[in-house]
């Protein structure tokens, strides 16, 4: 799959040293970074104006709003309006109080938000580009999670899912490991479809329709010469062609799809060094440990609901690590998954070049 690059720009203006935000843990919709691999940045506290008293802190300007720009660390929160960005070799793990989790792949940027003043206070995620795997508790605080990309809106109702946004052409791919997700292409006429466990979907947004080239003065259009009656009707001649509906391809999840899921979402569990643990406030350290335990519990409960056989195996083997559970879920599907046709096999070099391009297009640092 060839992926082209998005043109949205985020201009980050590095001003002085990075300050450390205060930590509190209120709010069921707030996620906490429990694992970080490589470079990860959090853009926080969006504001329409740049206040004078905050000029000594690094900022980013994105879509008309100013954000604080901080290198992420274990225990940081991902709150209302925040943007989380991973570098090309970066990954992150965000866990919520109930054990829901986002495994953020390399070269990814997403924004999280919700309407706290509305009855519909459900978490919404805007995936600007990159790869995101989520495990969401059915009936929990994010049981009506909505993920939006350029091509589609996805309603998550309790599942293990993976979404990738591929760039300026807006192509979105989604694969389901457990449960199901409702997918609606981003056009008014599109109808939602359900993507179930073991299946994937590719959504391509409508392509702009090119207008006919202007005819030189005195030159009669070909259509008029052939069909004068049609050319003489102003309403027909002036009508703009209707935009094409987005193409939605539903298919069995392939082995290559699953390898991509595993590569993007797997993070080897890394224990904090004594020095790093010492640097964290005690309440933050305890919070992170508690969240990891809760994540295991939530993931196992989800497996128990959708795959009792796998759950029994995990219990017998006393697996108590989310990465092992998530890997086993992929392995189970891999055994039954078909191979992809040749056209669906991008080379590693292609993927690497495209990911690098997406990163540089979205985030251009100014020294």
Short précis:
The chain is α+β, with helices and mostly antiparallel strands and 367 residues long. It is built from nine helices and 20 strands.
Supply Rg. Answer: 23 Å
CATH architecture of the domain at 22-29 and 82-207 and 244-268 and 338-357: Sandwich
In the CATH hierarchy, the third-tier topology of the domain at 22-29 and 82-207 and 244-268 and 338-357 is known as Jelly Rolls
Strand percentage: 25-35%
What does this structure look like?
Helix content is 26%, strand content 31%. The chain is of the alpha+beta class. It has a domain at 22-29 and 82-207 and 244-268 and 338-357: Jelly Rolls (Sandwich). A hairpin with a 6-residue loop joins strand 14 (159-165) and strand 15 (172-178). It is globular, with a radius of gyration of 23 Å. The model is unreliable at 1-26, 219-238 and 353-367 (pLDDT under 50).
């Amino acid at each position: 799959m060839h992926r082209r690059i998005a043109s949205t720009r985020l201009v980050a203006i590095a001003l002085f040293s990075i300050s450390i935000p205060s930590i509190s843990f209120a709010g069921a919709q707030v996620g906490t970074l429990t694992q970080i691999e490589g470079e990860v940045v959090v853009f926080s506290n969006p504001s329409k104006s740049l206040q004078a008293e905050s000029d000594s802190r690094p900022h980013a300007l994105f879509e008309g709003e100013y954000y604080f720009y901080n290198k992420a660390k274990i225990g940081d929160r991902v709150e209302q309006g925040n943007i989380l960005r991973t570098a090309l070799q970066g990954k992150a793990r965000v866990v919520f109080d109930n054990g829901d989790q986002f495994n953020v792949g390399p070269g990814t940027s997403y924004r999280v938000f919700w309407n706290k003043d509305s009855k519909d206070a459900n978490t919404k995620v805007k995936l600007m580009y990159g790869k995101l795997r989520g495990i969401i508790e059915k009936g929990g605080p994010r049981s009506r999670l909505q993920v939006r990309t350029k091509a589609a809106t996805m309603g998550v109702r309790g599942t293990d899912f993976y979404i990738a946004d591929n760039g300026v052409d807006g192509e979105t791919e989604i694969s389901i490991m457990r449960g199901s997700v409702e997918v609606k292409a981003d056009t008014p006429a599109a109808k939602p479809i359900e993507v179930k466990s073991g299946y994937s979907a590719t959504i391509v947004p409508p392509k702009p329709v090119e207008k006919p080239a202007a005819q030189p003065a005195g030159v009669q259009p070909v259509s008029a010469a052939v069909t004068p009656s049609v050319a003489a009707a102003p309403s027909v001649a002036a009508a703009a062609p209707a935009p094409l509906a987005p193409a939605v391809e539903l298919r069995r999840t392939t082995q290559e799809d699953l390898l991509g899921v595993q590569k993007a979402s797997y993070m080897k569990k890394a224990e904090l060094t004594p020095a790093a643990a010492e640097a964290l406030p005690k309440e933050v350290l305890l919070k992170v440990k508690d969240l990891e335990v809760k994540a295991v519990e939530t993931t196992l409960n989800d497996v128990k609901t959708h795959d009792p056989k796998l759950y029994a195996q995990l219990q017998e083997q006393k697996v108590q690590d989310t990465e092992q559970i998530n890997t086993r879920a992929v392995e189970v599907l891999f055994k039954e998954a078909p191979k992809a046709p040749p056209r669906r096999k991008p080379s590693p070099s292609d993927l690497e070049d495209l990911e690098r391009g997406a990163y540089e297009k979205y985030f251009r640092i100014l020294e």
